[in-house]
Specification:
Blueprint lengths: L3 E4 L2 E3 L5 E7 L5 E7 L6 E6 L6 E3 L7 E6 L4 E6 L8 E11 L2 E3 L8 E5 L2
Parallel strand pairs: 2-11
Antiparallel strand pairs: 1-3, 3-8, 4-5, 4-9, 5-6, 7-8, 9-10, 9-11
Length: 119
């Protein structure tokens, strides 16, 4: 069983940046970052294939967020720039599969890290 551990969340002012990390206890395939905002449905914000050659982003974060990974460390990152108050939420990483239709979430998920964007 693979364990995932997120880190890097915090409080940041609008326009600021954060980098989230997700460390896996073993080898994983495709990875995705989800966020859960209060009163909203969980949203897949970014995903990346096993080799890192393919990525997808939600329209709401395109051009501001970048997902990348270091397979040697079994770690996936989410670089978040130009943060907005609507980016506030709990961010979770998830290990899944890459399909012809993009990322498909799997069973393994971390505990999440809180991101709060506020002045």
């Amino acid at each position: 069983q693979v364990q995932l551990a997120e880190s890097g969340g915090g409080l940041v002012q609008p326009g600021g940046s954060l980098r989230l990390s997700c460390a896996a206890s073993g080898s994983v395939n495709a990875m995705g970052w989800y966020r859960q905002a209060p009163g909203k449905q969980r949203e897949l914000v970014a995903s990346i294939s096993k080799g890192g050659g393919s990525t997808n982003y939600a329209d709401s974060v395109k051009g501001r967020f970048t997902i990348f990974r270091t397979n040697a460390e079994n770690t996936v990152y989410l670089q978040m720039n130009s943060l907005r108050p609507e980016d506030t939420g709990i961010y979770y990483c998830n290990a899944g599969l890459w399909t012809p239709f993009g990322f498909r979430g799997g069973t393994y998920r971390g505990q999440g890290t809180q991101v709060t964007v506020s002045s």
